[in-house]
Amino acid sequence: STGNMAVWRYHFIGSDAAGTEDLFNIAFWHESVGQGGWYTVTQSHDSMTVRIGNDDVVKHRYYRNIKPMFTPDESAILYFVDTTGVFEPCLIPMAGAAPDTMQRRDLGGIFKTAGVGTANRTVNEATVFEWKPGPAPHVLGFVAGGRIALFDYAAEAVTVVEDLSEVGQIAWSPDGELMAAATGSGIYLVSPAGAVSSSPVYTLERSTDEIVGLAFSPSNTERKLGFSLVRKGKTAVDSWSALVIVDLSTGFWTFASPRVPWTGAREPAVPYTWMRVM
What we know:
By secondary structure, the chain is an all-beta fold. It has one helix at residues 110-114; strands at residues 5-12, 23-30, 39-40, 45-52, 55-62, 65-70, 76-81, 88-95, 98-99, 105-106, 129-131, 139-144, 147-152, 157-161, 169-172, 179-182, 186-190, 202-203, 210-216, 224-231, 240-247, 253-255, 260-261. 2% of the residues lie in helices and 44% in strands.
């Protein structure tokens, strides 16, 4: 939060052209070590010698460490590793200005047990994580295979919201008391415990419409949602984008911008994940 340390994924290209020997590690830097003084805090390769017939053969194993982040109180580094075949969370507590790698905690198995580690619900490089705001910010929300997952790293537990499917993106309210979830049919509200509103607060008019950049307004008393509505028509004439505001206190919604034609350079070639409406 003060810019005095950083954590990131470090990808080292291996000798195999197919990438099977690439190393994916977590790197760390603190200003106390000076410029260029970063170092790795994980391992992504191990080996063992096995006896095959009369020969001793070294068997190599490679795995990936991805998506590192500091916990909101910066007391630990959280990342994900696929040592079990699917990506599971790991925690490295901070000891002053350095990660205490000897106290690393592998929470492997909890995602797979909860159904997050299945083939179509696994964490990957494209997963977008959203920390729950509020006085106890230890819950991480994310979308896995169209389902919302709520991961509490302090309790070492994860909950999958099974009542919603086709979830594309989520957004927390400023106080962390509500989550908005954009689905293939509209926007639903979800509690931190995983309870889903009985009806959507906004319903899509067409199945081909898309909600992009979903976000809450800063106010906790007059809650509003903002997003970009992308209309995908049959031709460029009936294809457009517009900003929309939903007032959660009244249930009404309105266009906050004209319908901009969806043609040519008007549609930026960037991942929609990062086009958060403010």
